[in-house]
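Researcher: We are triaging several targets before committing to wet-lab work. For this one, the compound of interest is flavin-adenine dinucleotide. I'm pasting the protein sequence and the ligand SMILES. What I need is the predicted three-dimensional arrangement of the protein with the ligand bound, expressed as structure tokens, so it can go straight into our comparison scripts without reformatting.
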Amino acid sequence: MELYLREIEGKQAHDPVIMVEDDLKSMRRRRCCCVYVAGPVIVGAGPSGLAVAACLKEKGVPSVVLERSNCIASLWQLKTYDRLSLHLPKHFCELPFMSFPSDFPTYPSKRQFVQYLEEYAERFHIRPRFNQTVSSAEYDNTVGLWRVRTSESEYVCRWVIVATGENAEALEPEIKGIGEFGGPIRHTSLYKSGHEFRGKRVLVVGCGNSGMEVCLDLCNYNASPALVVRDKVHILPREMLGKSTFGVSMWLLKWLPIRLVDRFLLIVSRLILGDTSLFGLDRPPLGPLELKNLSGKTPVLDVGTLAMIKSGDIQVFPGIKRLKRHRVEFVDGTTEKFDAIILATGYRSNVPSWLKEGEMFSKKDGLPKRPFPNGWKGESGLYAVGFTKRGLLGASMDAKRIAEDIQRCWIANTSTTTTTYSYLS
Ligand SMILES: Cc1cc2nc3c(=O)[nH]c(=O)nc-3n(C[C@H](O)[C@H](O)[C@H](O)COP(=O)(O)OP(=O)(O)OC[C@H]3O[C@@H](n4cnc5c(N)ncnc54)[C@H](O)[C@@H]3O)c2cc1C
């Protein structure tokens, strides 16, 4: 610690991170530190945090990235299943200023995506501070600066960029009788592969992209999966007319109104996949793109699961009524025996647990209150990247806007930085 402090003291002149003199003394006493950051503090080192750090770097604005885990892109590295590939073609998933390698497949594997992100961080010299969970961030009106706290440090800065993601915490539903079940009940964030479920009957709860893909994975490991489908869902083929469905949709939206594009998608899907309602997968009344726009609910891009449902290898059940010992009772009255349950029930933002502000983010879902494309900017130097429900494409758009906005203030303010510093000390 002592060595670390001396090292930081020596770096003060060149680093965007400056220890405040008075705080250095109290830090020695309390064994924690107060750090003045000249540029923005970015909370989260996932793809969004990296994208905005890179955009800022390109504009000459230094930043500090704080990450709770011990690696970049922790969602991808630590909380996703082995067979995961990008759901969308690579050119819709690249971060600003760097394309995927040309020898990567159209849908890179998670290992390739992580490799791309590591090279991205290296290229833009992004060195996140790991094991730094932000427990609170609050705007201090008296000094006109943000105070961002971790267990070890307090970072004082003009700008805070929230990049903790829409998927920060696993969302686990309350299910009656959950304590009685007796077998493993696991969220997809802890599921790696079907290997340990070989020969077992496994109920997968939730029919989004993850739930559907986990079912397929279980089939490949000779488990017997069943899928709980509580709500209506749009299933689209991942590709149509030799192109990615996402790409076709984007292209058509340039020329046609969303309802017509939805009509087109549904007709082609019906031709390729057949009538999904025959297999317990009813479609919502709104089209897939309109529904996505209004509620953020993503259509499922089929990677082969539907064929297994049609062949009977994956059974479909309605909502769960309650669990009993190794048995599941469904809302239609049927009861079936299962060895394990996988909860593909999604994630939620954790912003309300640490960001102390009431204007920009909703306390209810932890997402920006203003709808896309206006959710990226709040008051008093607060920004959000990656909360658009539009994946990596949306995060890149946010990142560019935020960097441009901060650069304007940065240029105007660099001359006053010293004043702020002496005020603090
Ligand atoms: C299974 C899956 C597949 C997906 N596939 C695609 C796809 O193909 N294409 C696409 O465009 N999108 C896809 N997405 C959606 C989205 O692009 C990804 O979730 C992406 O990882 C979002 O990046 P992010 O940086 O916003 O959030 P995250 O990747 O979740 O990163 C947020 C980071 O913040 C850190 N953090 C959280 N709280 C704190 C805190 N209090 N203090 C410090 N650090 C904190 C986390 O540890 C994490 O590292 C997918 C999502 C999932 C779940």
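Researcher: Any quick observations?
Model: The radius of gyration is 24 Å.
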